[in-house]
Design a protein that fits this description.
Layout lengths: L10 H19 L5 H5 L8 H14 L22 H11 L1 H7 L12
Helix pairs in contact: 1-3, 4-5
The structure holds zinc ion (2 copies).
Length: 114
């Protein structure tokens, strides 16, 4: 989970984080350990539903298909903590498109044509 402003994610990173949200919920439901992800600051379980829906909204805004509602069914435990500021820097470092979208004058991600 990057937890940065979804508008600043390139297509690959937006879709990637969305898939991860589903993966984290599945892992949690199977009773598998998320300890490694927690240790590495990759998951913030209590924010999972809100974050997924935020990403799904941004996908819709860009005209990507989203057919996978995330329904935890109950409140998820406060497990893990993500550092959005550090992730923002990391994305800018490793991804040219994310770096471009972070720039204040980028014009934002491509929008769905009306
Ligand atoms: Zn989904
Ligand atoms: Zn990217």
């Amino acid at each position: 989970m990057w937890m940065v402003d979804p508008r600043t994610l390139c297509r690959a990173h937006l879709l990637g984080e969305h898939v991860e949200c589903h993966m984290f919920l599945a892992t949690f439901r199977l009773g598998r350990s998320l300890a490694g992800y927690v240790r590495d600051g990759l998951v913030e379980l209590s924010a999972l539903k809100r974050r997924h829906d935020e990403l799904a909204r941004e996908m819709g805004r860009r005209g990507y298909r989203h057919r996978s509602p995330l329904a935890p069914g109950r409140r998820l435990p406060a497990l893990g903590r993500v550092d959005p500021a550090a992730n923002r820097r990391e994305l800018a470092r490793r991804c040219r498109e994310c770096r471009r979208l972070q720039a204040p004058d980028s014009g934002g991600p491509p929008r769905k044509r009306q």
